[in-house]
Amino acid sequence: MTKQVKNLKHLQSEIDSALSLIKNKGSVLNGDGISKKGLITGTESLLERCRSIVIAKQKAKPSMRTIHHFACSGGTLISKCISSMPNVFLLSEMHPYTQMFPPSGKPLYLPTDIVSQIKYAKLPLNKELSLKLFTNNIVTVSKHLRKIGGTLIIREHTHSEYCLSDMVHKTKTLISCLSSEFNIESIVTIRDPIDSYSSLVKNNWVTFNPQSFDEYCKRYLCFLEDYADCSVFKYEDFVEEPIEQIKNICKSLKVEFCEDFLDIFPLIKLSGDSGRTSDSISFRKNNVPSYIKNEALKSSHYHLFCDRFNYRNIL
């Protein structure tokens, strides 16, 4: 007898034993054995059991809060206010493998920045390794804060995701790398694109192609489609009613709210302060160049943005 035949006979024996066990189990349950549909009656659906296991695992995962917005859209100011809440610790402008850092040229002295050192050393598969290190570090920080009663919030550097390359990669990198470890609560903040784009031009931060206002609005809409399941807060509403809007943001993020943030936020230091230097929350006049206004009038994506979020800056 060949080895293959022996294996087949052994497999048949195992199957027969399993069927016998199922029949016996069915008769113990209700005496009816296996139902007409081939399922053991009186037992819980396997699908339901799997669903219960998944739900239980989700409940067991800790929470993570994330904030997402485009550059020059008031995100730093809003983040400072959120960071002023009791026991909140905010990590600012985070991204696992942004193209913006480290900068090209002579390597910088970065003794604690492992990810940048990996890029300098040109390690194989450095992107995958950077993602793993980033995730592990966030998990470690989160555990540390939970032990002392703190809450971790991550402000993503969304500019790296949508406004650097010629192509928009709809990956939601931060959410993707953390979702296996955390139940994630996210919010999005926006500003009238004509104002944020004007500041982007002023700072010489337009690096995508084509370098046009319509392309910028197209990327903005792409970002908002990716985060369509998140609560969206307008910068303009925040400036007009800061207490009410921050209260709503805290509710969305499931963070304790405290009105004292108006006295505390000026003391918070975060990266990304691209424009505002005042400690007051108020509207600032943004001088929009005439050529950008002309582009806006012709931009189909800007019209879509305005219709969706009720902006009527120049239209």
Describe the structure.
There is one protein chain. This protein has a domain at 62-191 and 230-269 and 279-287: Rossmann fold (3-Layer(aba) Sandwich), CATH 3.40.50. Helix content is 50%, strand content 10%. The protein has helices spanning 3-30, 46-60, 75-83, 114-121, 126-147, 158-162, 173-178, 193-202, 213-226, 235-240, 242-253, 261-264, 290-298, 300-309, and strands at residues 63-68, 88-94, 151-156, 183-190, 231-234. The protein has a five-stranded parallel β-sheet, sandwiched between helices. Helix 9 crosses helix 14. The termini are far apart.
| Overall pLDDT metric | 85
How many H/I helical runs?
Answer: 14
SSE arrangement, N to C: HHEHEHHEHHEHHEHHHHH
CATH topology of the domain at 62-191 and 230-269 and 279-287, which one? Rossmann fold
Helix content: 40-55%
CATH architecture type of the domain at 62-191 and 230-269 and 279-287: 3-Layer(aba) Sandwich
Record the strand order, biggest sheet: 2-3-1-4-5
Supply the CATH class of the domain at 62-191 and 230-269 and 279-287: Alpha Beta
How many angstroms does the end-to-end distance come to?
86 Å
Could you say which overall geometry the principal axes of the C-alpha atoms support? globular
For the largest beta-sheet, the strand count, sense and barrel status come to: 5 strands, parallel
**SS elements, strand count:** 5
Radius of gyration, in angstroms, nearest whole number: 27 Å
